[in-house]
Amino acid sequence: MRVKQWKRGWVILAIAWLVSRFVVCPCRTFSPQKTSQQHGVGPLRAAPNKADALTLARRQLKLAVDQQEMAVEDLQTARQTGDERKIREAKEDVKEAKEDVKEAEEKVQKAEEKVQKAKEEVQEKVDRDATAFANELASIGQPEGLDAGVQLFKLNRSLTADYRMSGTAMLSRKTIRVAWDAAFEEMEQGHALRVAMVGMPGIGKSRSLTYGLWRLMTREVPPVVVFEARRGQKVFIFTWQNNQWVVRSVAINNWIPANCKYLQDERNFYLIDAFVPEQWDAILPAKTIKACSPDRKHHSGFVKDGGIYVYVEAWSEAEVEAAHPYIDGAPKLSEMLRRFEQVGGNLRVLLSNVMEYDKYVLLQREDAKNLRAVERAVRGDLDTQGGQMLTRLFTYFSKNGRSSCVGFCSKGAAKMVLDAHYDDLMKIWSNPNDPEGDFLFEQFVGTIFTTSLLEGQRLDRYSITRKAGKWDHTKCQPLMPCGCQLLECDSEVVFDQRWRAAVEKGGLEEVLHTPKQYPGIDYLLDFNHGIQVTQSVTQSDKHSIAPKLLEKLHTAFDGHKGYNFTLTFMVVREPTSFKPKDLKEFNGLMKLAQGKERVFSKVWVDVIQMPKTRDSLPKKKCCKGSASRRTAGRAWS
């Protein structure tokens, strides 16, 4: 009968198909697939045998249905002939075909159930290693405090292999804690649905996600946390069950955020280690925090309609020193600090091998040649799109995590840029109509006194006094910059404490940069020598002697007699045309060296013009012992 022949036919066909799958594509079963090939493949790939069984069952069902249709046609033909024997045989074939269809349908149903179960097993698999890590992390009450505001979390495990490249210990810096505080506060107050955590590459943004995870896990009522580690090719789901943390993991190529029920709950958190940008990021109800580089592809779409930025600063020299003993495989501290002078707080580069470090410095030098890109960076644009890695030369500075400015990442990077473009940049800084010129010039002055850029050059200085009711400018001993260590101050309180300590000591070993909007001075060259940076001699409202500065001087030098004090204005125009904005404030400063209640033996106010071109002044050997002490000599004279 035709039905029996067709049965034999589809059985032979099925066997041939299976053999062809084995012979032609043996690598499918026995060869592991590369990650790049797996990316984007659906969850059936996790259970190929079950998926193949489902495909075969569906083909068998189609054959059975076809055979049933043919049997029905044979029955109709037999009825037309009136042959009872043929009609009887045809009815038996139809009955047998229906049974075959039913059997095939049952096989398809069972195969579908097995595939679904396999998918659920993939998505709901408890990750024992991640669970052990989670409970160890949650058990840490308070981290150990180190110097420079660094906190140490002693851990024996890491969530993924890439997070333990420099050891399992987790190091939390102040800037990280400030950024996470800002992110949580903005979200909890309803000001943001998504947060992009931005900073230069290599500073530990990805590993800081573990700090954020710890903060969430130790809440009184912890949320479910979904942690997407793209570099580790896994997604982890942290849930609190029966007084312990349970972590399930999903392979990244099986992960569809929109299908995760936990991300549909706005009380839960979604942490993303971006690593590489996706074409799109799911916008879901859960609170989402994404650690990413300045590359616009990582965050521009992510922050649209309800997203904000928080900023993480690079490592400081003091933080590197504090953390060094707890970083596995780190070079000698002296070598790391030497590198820090050139590359700044990129910890990944500080820890790299010699060849990688040298290559990075060469790339810095190439980047420094691009004036247009450099100008974009100094104005605050650190986007790396298009391959221009501006973060090799510049970095973000942010004291509150919410707002940021851009500055050189290191003394070495600043020197590279200024050596290449000094004359062009001076034109930018000299433009009084540039709203950012004052800030850019202030950053530049810090570089002058903390690198060897102008070391040994004599900067002409003019003393400012009042004679016969007029301003008088008298040329005096020049100032000669020497490369010193620049120390940024996070707050007014920190600056005042360091200033007072320098007065007690009678000297300042670094150059102190004041926090934003500090009254009257921008830098402290020595404990008794302040610098105020003024872009324009006519339009700027900065060239004043703030009354609050006089109070600061009283406080800093309280109980100390015999010191002198110098206030220097740094300008880009002709120094002899400069004059303090307010005569009353000028006289108030001078009175600090007059009468019985005098604070100083002598007070000077002077002005210095920055050289208009890189080689506009003759060089002379630097006199390193010229800083002021407890004598009548002038500061940095």
TrEMBL record:
This is Uncharacterized protein. It comes from Cladocopium goreaui. Residues 616-637 are annotated as: Disordered. Keywords: Coiled coil. The lineage of its organism: Eukaryota, Sar, Alveolata, Dinophyceae, Suessiales. Residues 58-128 form a coiled coil. InterPro entries: Crinkler_effector.
